[in-house]
C-alpha cells in the first residue's frame, strides 16, 4: 500500500506515527491518570444514564403532550442489547472526551520538542474566561433545547403520527440519537458569539466579512436547520430563529471587539468613566433596584410558574436572608456598571475612529456604506484612490447583495473618475501602457466594456465549440479520445443551452413544484395518509386486521414526516415534468435532440399518464393487497403480531402500486424518445449512465438502505431491458428508428 502513496504523504504519515509514539512515551508514566479520567467519564455516564438521564429525557419528551397522546407514546428496545450497548457507546464517547485533554497535557513535552505546543502560552485567567464563556453558552443552548424546543417538537411529531393512525413507538436507539444530535447542534450553535468575536479580534475573519455576508449566514442557518431538525417549517423556524438571534448578537460583539482592538492604543477607560460617571452610576443603581424589586414583588413566583408551564421541575429560590438579598442587589449593580462602562468605552472608540479617518476626507468614504444614489453623488477622489481590482470587487459585493443598480453605478463612476492607467512590472502605473492597450482594442475601453467583452468571449467559446461539434463530425474520427472529449463538450453545451432556455420560466416551474409539494404534504399531514391507510386495510383479507395482526409504528420521531416529504417531492416532480418538458421543447428541437413539435408534449403526457394510472390501479386493487397478505400469512398462521415501520410499509405500498405504473412507463417513454429522435443505438449504448441515474434516484427517494436501492433499481433496469427488446423489434434491430432520419447539411 505504501508504494501507492507519494513521498510527501509517506513522510507525513511517518511523522504522525513518530509524534504519536513520542506522545505515548512522554505520557507513559501518567497513562494511569489518563485512564482514570476515561473511567470516570465512562462509568459516570453509564450509571447517570441508567439512574437519571433516561427518566429526564422521557419527561422532556412528554412535557407538552396531552395525557391521551402521552399514553400512546412508548419507547422500546428492538433487541435485548439496545439499552446496554447504547449506554456503553455514549459512555465511551464521554470518557474519550474527558481523557483527551489529560493525555495532551501529560504528553506536552513531546509536543514542545516538535514545536507543536503553543510557544507563547495564553495567560491562565484568559483561558479561564474563554472556558467559562464556552461552558455558559453551551449550557444556555442546551437549556433552550430541553426546555423549549424538545417539548414542543415531540408533542408535534407524536400528534402528527397519531393523527395519521400510527403508533409513536420509538426505538430507544433512534430516539436517543435524535435527541443527542440536536443537543450537540444547539450546543455548537450557541458558541457563535465566542467564535465570531474571537475570529474578528484575531483578524482571521474580519468583522466586515460577517457583516457583508449575513445573507449567506441566513441561508446556512436554515440549511443546517433542515439537516438537524424535522422537515417541517415549524421546527426549522424554532431552530433557526434563536441561531439567527445569536448571529445578530455575535455580529454586534464582533464589531465591539474589532473597534476596541483597532483603537486599543487610544482607549482611556478612566477618562470615559469620568466623562459619563453620572449615567454609569444611575445605571448601577437602576440594576440593583430592578433585582430588589424582582425578589420583593413576586418575580420568583412568576418565573417558577413559567418553568412549571413548560414541564420543568426546577424552581428558583428566594434569598433566605436580608444579607443574601443585599449581596444579590450589589452584584447586580456592579454588573450593570460594568456593562455601562463597556458601552461608553466602545462608543468613544467608535467616534475616535471616525475622527481619525478624517472628517471631510473623501478617500475615507467606504463604498459598502453607500447606496446607488450615494455612489453617484460621491466625490471623484473616492474612485481616484481605487484600483480596477478594488472597483470590480466592490461591484461584485453589490451584486452579491442584490443591488445591481449600485454595482453599475460603481462601474460607471470608476470609468469616469477612476485611475485609467495600467500597472507595469514594478507595480507602478503608466499612462502609456493604458494608451497602448486602448490602441490595440480600437480605442479607449472602460472596465465595463472589458467586462462585457470578457463575458461575450466566454460565451463565444461555447458557441464555437458547439459549431465545431456540429460541423466537424469528420474530425471525431481521429481517435477515441477525441470522440469522448467531443461528446463531453457537446453534452455540456447542450445542457447549458437547454437550461438557459428555461431560465426565464424558472419562476413558474419552481412555483408549480412548490405548490404541488405543499399541497400534497398538506393533504397527507391533515389526514390524507390516514385515509389512504384505512382504505388500503379494507382491501386486505378479513383475517388481517390492524388490531390483531398488522400494526404500523414510528420507530423514529421524524419517520412519518420524512415519508410525507419524500412522497410529496415525488408527486411534485411527476406533475412538474410535463411543464418542464413543454418549456424546454424548443431548445431540444433547436439542438436537434428531438424533432417533434411542441404539441407532442401533450401526447407524451397522455401516454405516460395512462401507463402510470393503469399500473397504479392494477397495483392498488390487486398486487399490493396480494403481496402484503402473502407476506403476513405465516405470521397469521403462527398467531404473531407484525409491527411494520411507517417507512417500510408505505414504500412497499408505493412500489406495488405507483411502482407498477412507473415500470409500465419505462418502455412507453423509450418508444416516445425513439419517435422524437433518440436512436435505439444511443439508448442501448447508454445503459450504464441510466443505471447510475436510477441508483441516484433510489438513494434520494427511498429508505436509506442498500437492499431497498437494489429492489428499486433492478425492476427499473429490467423494464429498461424490456423497452430495449420492444425497440429492437419495432426498429428492426436499430436499422429503422421511428423518427425520420436527420437531414445532412452540405
Describe the 3D structure.
- Helices cover 75% and strands 2% of the residues.
- The chain has helices at residues 7-26, 31-62, 67-72, 82-106, 108-113, 124-163, 172-189, 192-201, 207-212, 214-228, 233-262, 269-275, 277-296, 299-309, 322-357, 372-377, 380-384, 388-400, 404-417, 431-440, 447-471, 480-501, 506-538, 559-590, 600-637, 646-656, 658-676, 680-685, 687-701, 706-730; strands at residues 74-76, 169-171, 422-423, 429-430, 550-553, 642-645.
- The strands form three sheets. The chain has a two-stranded parallel sheet. A two-stranded antiparallel sheet has the order 3-4. A two-stranded parallel ribbon has the order 5-6.
- By secondary structure, the chain is an all-alpha fold.
Layout of strands and helices, then pairs:
Elements: H1 7-26, H2 31-62, H3 67-72, E1 74-76, H4 82-106, H5 108-113, H6 124-163, E2 169-171, H7 172-189, H8 192-201, H9 207-212, H10 214-228, H11 233-262, H12 269-275, H13 277-296, H14 299-309, H15 322-357, H16 372-377, H17 380-384, H18 388-400, H19 404-417, E3 422-423, E4 429-430, H20 431-440, H21 447-471, H22 480-501, H23 506-538, E5 550-553, H24 559-590, H25 600-637, E6 642-645, H26 646-656, H27 658-676, H28 680-685, H29 687-701, H30 706-730
Parallel strand pairs: 1-2, 5-6
Antiparallel strand pairs: 3-4
Amino acid at each position: 500500500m505504501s508504494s501507492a502513496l507519494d513521498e510527501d504523504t509517506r513522510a507525513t504519515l511517518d511523522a504522525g506515527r513518530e509524534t504519536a509514539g513520542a506522545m505515548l512515551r512522554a505520557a507513559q508514566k501518567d497513562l494511569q491518570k489518563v485512564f482514570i479520567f476515561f473511567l470516570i467519564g465512562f462509568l459516570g455516564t453509564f450509571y447517570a444514564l441508567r439512574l437519571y438521564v433516561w427518566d429526564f429525557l422521557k419527561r422532556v419528551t412528554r412535557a407538552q403532550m396531552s395525557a391521551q397522546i402521552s399514553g400512546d407514546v412508548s419507547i422500546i428496545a428492538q433487541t435485548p442489547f439496545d439499552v446496554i450497548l447504547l449506554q456503553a457507546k455514549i459512555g465511551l464517547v464521554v470518557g474519550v472526551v474527558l481523557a483527551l485533554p489529560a493525555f495532551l497535557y501529560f504528553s506536552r513535552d513531546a509536543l514542545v520538542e516538535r514545536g507543536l505546543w503553543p510557544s507563547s502560552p495564553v495567560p491562565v485567567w484568559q483561558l479561564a474566561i474563554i472556558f467559562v464563556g464556552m461552558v455558559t453558552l453551551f449550557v444556555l443552548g442546551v437549556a433552550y433545547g430541553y426546555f423549549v424546543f424538545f417539548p414542543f417538537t415531540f408533542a408535534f411529531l407524536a400528534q402528527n403520527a397519531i393523527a395519521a393512525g400510527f403508533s409513536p413507538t420509538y426505538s430507544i436507539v433512534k430516539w436517543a440519537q435524535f435527541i443527542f444530535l440536536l443537543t450537540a447542534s444547539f450546543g455548537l450553535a450557541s458558541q457563535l458569539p465566542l467564535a465570531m468575536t474571537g475570529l474578528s479580534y484575531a483578524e482571521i475573519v474580519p468583522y466586515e466579512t460577517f457583516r457583508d455576508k449575513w445573507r449567506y449566514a441566513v441561508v446556512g442557518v436554515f440549511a443546517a436547520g433542515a439537516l438537524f431538525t424535522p422537515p417541517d417549517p415549524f421546527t426549522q423556524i424554532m431552530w433557526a430563529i434563536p441561531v439567527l438571534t445569536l448571529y445578530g448578537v455575535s455580529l454586534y460583539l464582533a464589531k465591539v471587539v474589532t473597534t476596541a482592538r483597532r483603537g486599543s492604543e487610544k482607549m482611556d477607560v478612566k477618562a470615559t468613566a469620568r466623562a459619563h460617571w453620572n449615567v454609569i452610576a444611575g445605571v448601577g443603581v437602576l440594576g440593583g433596584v430592578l433585582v430588589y424589586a424582582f425578589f420583593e414583588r413576586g418575580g420568583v413566583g412568576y418565573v417558577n410558574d413559567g418553568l412549571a408551564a413548560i414541564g420543568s421541575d426546577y424552581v428558583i429560590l428566594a434569598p433566605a436572608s436580608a444579607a443574601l438579598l443585599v449581596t444579590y442587589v450589589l452584584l447586580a449593580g456592579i454588573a450593570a456598571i460594568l456593562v455601562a462602562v463597556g458601552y461608553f468605552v466602545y462608543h468613544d472608540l467608535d467616534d475616535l475612529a471616525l475622527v481619525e479617518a478624517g472628517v471631510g476626507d473623501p478617500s475615507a468614504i467606504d463604498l459598502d456604506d453607500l447606496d446607488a444614489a450615494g455612489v453617484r453623488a460621491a466625490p471623484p477622489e473616492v474612485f481616484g484612490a481605487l484600483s480596477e481590482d478594488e472597483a470590480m470587487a466592490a461591484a461584485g459585493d453589490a451584486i452579491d447583495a442584490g443591488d445591481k443598480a449600485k454595482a453599475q453605478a460603481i462601474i460607471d463612476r470608476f470609468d469616469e473618475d477612476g485611475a485609467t492607467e495600467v500597472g507595469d512590472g514594478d507595480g507602478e502605473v503608466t499612462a502609456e501602457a493604458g494608451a497602448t492597450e486602448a490602441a490595440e482594442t480600437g480605442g479607449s475601453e472602460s472596465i465595463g466594456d472589458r467586462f462585457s467583452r470578457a463575458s461575450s468571449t466566454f460565451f463565444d467559446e461555447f458557441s464555437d465549440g458547439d459549431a465545431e461539434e456540429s460541423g466537424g463530425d469528420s474530425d471525431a474520427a481521429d481517435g477515441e479520445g477525441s470522440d469522448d472529449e467531443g461528446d463531453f463538450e457537446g453534452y455540456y453545451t447542450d445542457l447549458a443551452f437547454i437550461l438557459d432556455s428555461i431560465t426565464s420560466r424558472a419562476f413558474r416551474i419552481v412555483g408549480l413544484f412548490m405548490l404541488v409539494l405543499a399541497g400534497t404534504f398538506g393533504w397527507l399531514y391533515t389526514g390524507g395518509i390516514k385515509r389512504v391507510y384505512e382504505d388500503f386495510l379494507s382491501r386486505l383479507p378479513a383475517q388481517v386486521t390492524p388490531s390483531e395482526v398488522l400494526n404500523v409504528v414510528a420507530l423514529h420521531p421524524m419517520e412519518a414526516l420524512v415519508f410525507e416529504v419524500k412522497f410529496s417531492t415525488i408527486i411534485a416532480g411527476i406533475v412538474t415534468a410535463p411543464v418542464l418538458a413543454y418549456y424546454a421543447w424548443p431548445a431540444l428541437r433547436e439542438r436537434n435532440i428531438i424533432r417533434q413539435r411542441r404539441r407532442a408534449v401533450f401526447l407524451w403526457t397522455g401516454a405516460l399518464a395512462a401507463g402510470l394510472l393503469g399500473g397504479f390501479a392494477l397495483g392498488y386493487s390487486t398486487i399490493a393487497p396480494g403481496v402484503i397478505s402473502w407476506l403476513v400469512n405465516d405470521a397469521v398462521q403462527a398467531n404473531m403480531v407484525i409491527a411494520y415501520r411507517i417507512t417500510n410499509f408505505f414504500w412497499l405500498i408505493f412500489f406495488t402500486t405507483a411502482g407498477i405504473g412507473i415500470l409500465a412507463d419505462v418502455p412507453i417513454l423509450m418508444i416516445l424518445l425513439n419517435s422524437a429522435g433518440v436512436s435505439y443505438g444511443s439508448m442501448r449504448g447508454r445503459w450504464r449512465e441510466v443505471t447510475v441515474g436510477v441508483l441516484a434516484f433510489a438513494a434520494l427517494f427511498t429508505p436509506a438502505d442498500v437492499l431497498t436501492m437494489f429492489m428499486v433499481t433492478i425492476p427499473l433496469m429490467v423494464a429498461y431491458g424490456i423497452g430495449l427488446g420492444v425497440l429492437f423489434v419495432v426498429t428492426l434491430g436499430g436499422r429503422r428508428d421511428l423518427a425520420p432520419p436527420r437531414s445532412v447539411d452540405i
